[in-house]
Amino acid sequence: MAFYIKRMTVIGLGLIGGSLARALRRKALVGEVVGVNRHRESLERAVALGVIDRFSTDPEDGVRDADLVVVATPVRAIVPTIARAAPGMMRGAVVTDAGSVKGRIVAACEAVMPQGVDFVGGHPIAGTEHSGVEASFATLFEGSRTILTPTEHTAKDALELVTLVWEATGSTVETMDPLHHDKVLAATSHLPHLMAYNIVKTLSDLENDVQSEVFRFAASGFRDFTRIASSDPTMWRDICLENREAILEMIGRFGQDLQTLRDLVHDGNGDALHQIFSQSRATRDRVLKIGKG
User: Fold this and answer.
1) pLDDT per position as a tens digit, 259-275
2) Closest C-alpha among 165, 151, 80 to residue 119
3) Is the same domain home to 10 and 150?
4) Which residues form the domain of 141?
5) pTM surpassing 0.85?
6) Helix, strand or coil for residue 99?
7) What total number of domains does the chain contain?
């Protein structure tokens, strides 16, 4: 089914919001794109880059007459931003977000929707370690997955539109219960980011003479594993606070497994270590094969 968005407003014009605007522009699926950010300088850069046509620093003003409103702010700003923008939304508009936490956010956003305006929770699972509209590019979502989290309150036509929008970017769309989404993402995304941040902290806290040698001889494995520790600190602070319970559960599970490894190393149990490493390698190979499929 074809679609065309006459006016789209993107609130939080960074990597995700900017890349979505670029992708839809490239395929001529959107007319006017309005950007909303707190900082005027980033909006002026977005105009100069051709990502948006015009901008506003006021969410209520920026969403006027928009057919689709996409909120791509840090997760703790999503609900208050949508609440501020709500009085300016026109009847028939569809609102979606791009946050990686969904449970409380979806319920709160649905509660503040004006009459005749529909909300669809969304989470494009794509990104890089870079942030800002300058880092955005039209092909970011190609080959990715996007999770939409409809509820019993989600309008069918609104869900269909948001599905078509993300599919147009080259992403495969799946639906999931909001709370289940948060448990899955705590394991697949949130915990790995915390691990990357923490290993860099551990190494940076070593004694100065050891630390200098560690970072001097850091190999490609270190760079690959810790790449995501270059992600936006504000975004990840908010994710940890917003998805606290699910993340704490995963940290607990990981801590138990790490203690097991410690004990095996301490005891010199090479057979058990080899078994764990072999199982982990097989699991990773299987996951990567599924991902390619």
Assistant:
1) 999 999 999 999 999 99
2) 151
3) yes
4) 5-176
5) yes
6) coil
7) 2
